[in-house]
Write a structure and sequence with these properties.
With about 140 residues, this protein is an alpha+beta fold. The protein is built from 4 helices and 9 strands; from the N terminus they run H-E-H-E-E-E-H-E-H-E-E-E-E. Helix 1 (about 10-20) packs across helix 2.
Length: about 140
């Protein structure tokens, strides 16, 4: 009698990502599927396949292929600034916009802030970066 094989860990992780509405994933999201090392291995395979991009230690974002380069890029709407803030939210870190962004939103300056800068209200030692861009923290 033919018995279909059970899905592999990689298939189960991929299915959970597809079903999820989240943009940022942590290995803890998949801890119930297998051991820590196996989950990290499956996430690395998804990064290598271009389905996820690694944006920090234990931080992964959905990916799409760039129409310009054909390389995987984060699929988070709004660019790196919103990706970094979504990562902080996902980690449970309280933050507020940087002083330059506040000055612009309050009308005190006409200079539009370009870099991803936040002021943290909680401690966070993780480096959040992708493609030459890095989240900067104001003190």
């Amino acid at each position: 009698m033919f018995r279909p094989s059970s899905p592999t860990l990689l298939q189960r992780v991929r299915a959970r990502i597809v079903k999820s509405k989240r943009q940022i994933f942590l290995p803890a999201d998949f801890a119930d599927l297998s051991g820590r090392v196996q989950v990290y291995r499956a996430l690395k395979q998804l990064v290598d396949a271009g389905e996820l991009v690694r944006v920090g230690s234990g931080l992964y974002a959905r990916a799409r292929l760039s129409s310009l380069t054909g390389e995987p890029v984060p699929a988070v709407p709004g660019g790196f600034k919103y990706l970094a803030r979504a990562a902080l939210d996902r980690l449970g870190v309280r933050w507020e916009p940087g002083s330059r962004e506040l000055a612009f939103s309050e009308g005190r300056t006409n200079q539009i802030p370009v870099n991803a800068v936040v002021r943290l209200r909680d401690r966070c030692r993780r480096r959040i970066a992708w493609g030459g861009m890095e989240l900067r923290v104001e003190h």
